[in-house]
Specification:
0% strand; 111 residues; 7 helices; mainly alpha
């Protein structure tokens, strides 16, 4: 496959909701109490580091942002948000700063 076709394919591929993916990992850990991040990684065919990063989203993002991704009415620009793009928000100290920055990102997509 040529590089041009590959890029076209990647753009057309539906991206997964990072928060819902994180909840799948957490659900697995809850369902199998003795399991580790390594077990989750093997189950979902991802790296242990990826499991850790996705779970950090749910644990470190304010509920308002999580609600945005878990609501039944997902916005059309939803596919823009990946775990990698949300990760910097988890490093901010206050929930207010996280919500403000997330709002700025959403406005940039709409505006």
């Amino acid at each position: 496959m040529s590089q041009k076709k590959w890029h076209y394919h990647l753009r057309k591929t539906k991206k997964k909701n990072p928060i819902l993916e994180a909840y799948k990992c957490l659900d697995y850990l809850e369902e199998f109490p003795g399991s580790t991040y390594r077990d989750v990684a093997e189950k979902f065919n991802i790296s242990k580091a990826r499991v850790s990063q996705m779970i950090a989203l749910v644990k470190k993002l304010p509920q308002e942002i999580i609600d945005y991704f878990t609501s039944k009415e997902n916005p059309k620009n939803f596919s823009y948000f990946t775990e990698r793009k949300l990760r910097p928000l988890t490093l901010m100290k206050s929930d207010e700063a996280k919500i403000k920055k997330f709002g700025e990102i959403k406005q940039g997509l709409i505006g």
